[in-house]
């Protein structure tokens, strides 16, 4: 990987660029997390028909198969290529079924702060899979990538996501008014953080 050239005299250096990253596979006791593939498009499309996923995330609504294609071939692929948006599909090890997604998105112009996000397929909710996957992603971000701070945000009222964040160890910090955009509207949002020292042994 080439380093960015030094600014000339009188020029100001821009924000640090995120390093290019090869997709990383994470495993837990029950799950495998890997980058999305073309073979996952049908399962992603089916999962995102769920009104709850459309209600609490920024996935398009209505959701079309072309949206799943874009997620796999553009968003996730370029996210890993640039190192700015690391996306995993989460699979049950025993069955190979898609149980959700996880993502780490670096803050604009920063390489030490990222936002974590996820959604879970309705058929596999209530089994602790999202907590298990999010814990693995949080450890990867803080321990392997050296992030200084990991943030979780959710629209106010998303109690399921808040419960997951709490079980992972995120510390609730407050409510941001009219903060997070979803399809042209801004919603009040909860925010919590996880620091390297918060990780359980």
TrEMBL record:
Residues 1-23 are annotated as: Disordered. Residues 31-196 form the N-acetyltransferase domain. It holds the Pfam family Acetyltransf_3. InterPro entries: Acyl_CoA_acyltransferase (IPR016181), GNAT_dom (IPR000182), Ribosomal_N-acetyltransferase (IPR051908). This is GNAT family N-acetyltransferase. The lineage of its organism: Bacteria, Bacillati, Actinomycetota, Actinomycetes, Kitasatosporales.
